[in-house]
Amino acid sequence: MEACRQIGIAEQTLYRWRKEYGGMKVDQARRMKDLERENARLKKLVADLALDKAILQEASKLIF
Questions:
Q1: 21 with 29: CB under 8 angstroms?
Q2: Domain regions of the chain by residue span
């Protein structure tokens, strides 16, 4: 498509975006992106805390 070439994206990207965001208004799409970023941040935080917990559990086994 000409529009894809003009903005420098693949047609496949356009179709994926349409499928993901097609029925949304701009503010809804922005909110969804914000929530996806927040979700990724929270997942990383949970993973870090789980690792900290595992380290502390191993350390407590050595002490007791």
A1: yes
A2: 25-64
pLDDT of residue 58: 94
Q: Please report the pLDDT score of residue 1 as a whole number.
A: 82
- Do the beta carbons of residue 1 and residue 14 sit within 8 Å? yes
Q: In this model, does residue 64 exceed pLDDT 80?
A: no
Question: Please, what is the end-to-end C-alpha distance for the chain in angstroms?
Answer: 67
Taking the C-alpha atoms of residue 34 and residue 28, their distance in angstroms, rounded to an integer, is 10
Please give the Cα distance from 9 to 42 (Å, whole number): 30
pTM, to two decimals: 0.65
29: Cβ contacts below 8 Å, ≥ 6 apart:
21
